[in-house]
Amino acid sequence: MKWETALWMVACLLLSSLPTGQLHSTCHAFVGETVVLPCSTSPPGELTLSKSLLYWQIGTTHLVHFFQNGQDSLKDQDEKFRGRTSLFLDQMKYGNLSLKISSVQLGDNAEYSCIYREAESHEIKKSTIKLKVSAPPRIEEPPSPSEQNQIPSGSPTNVPCLAMLLLSFLLLVPLGLWHL
After folding, report:
1. How many other C-beta atoms are found inside a 10 Å radius of the C-beta of residue 68?
2. In sequence order, what are the beta bridge partners of 100?
3. CB of 65 within 8 A of CB of 81?
């Protein structure tokens, strides 16, 4: 085996062993949509949720979602997120700590932190996810065929006819086809 191949294999092993909880990502959503902010632990395995804490927050003051002792604890949740956040409870023990935000609002545009702490080992894993929220695209409907053929009120409807009459007169007089 060449040394380049061996070096490549070692690099791949090292990259694959990095904890996925440390990766940073960006998510995009339109106002009114539901978005999932990804967060997971590595290596995947069964977590002891009854002895762990999970914080989803913006900065250090805005608590978006809090999970402790195997259940949601939302009494200190930021008011603007009430009733709009949830976790994948059936997948959490396997390392899926992702947060679902429903009815996304422009004010949800922020950098979110997913902070997981196991009570026994005191190991802390943190991931940062940027959410970019946009207003929904405006789709303008083309005018109906009946609207396209309508002449707006107040427009000079006889101007094209007068112009054609004048043009005809100017062409026919020099040709001698029009006698006055």
Report:
1. 16
2. 36, 86
3. yes
**Percent helix, percent strand, percent coil in the chain, to nearest 5:** 30, 30, 40
Looking at the predicted structure, is the pLDDT value of residue 77 above 90?
Answer: yes
In degrees, rounded to 5, the angle at the alpha carbon of residue 49 between the alpha carbons of residues 43 and 52 is: 85
CA–CA separation, 86 and 82 (whole Å): 10
Alpha helices per DSSP H over 44-176? 89-92, 145-148, 159-175
DSSP string, 11-42: HHHHHHTS-GGG--EEEEEETT--EEE--B-S
Contacts of 169 (CB under 8 A, 6+ apart): 178
Rounded mean pLDDT, 123-138: 90
Assign 139 a pLDDT band (cuts: 50, 70, 90): confident
89 Cβ neighbours under 8 A, 6+ residues apart:
none
- What pLDDT shows up at residue 121? 76
Please determine, for residue 99, whether its predicted confidence score (pLDDT) is greater than 70.
yes
The CA distances from residue 5 to 2, 8, 17, 73, in Å, are 5, 5, 18, 50
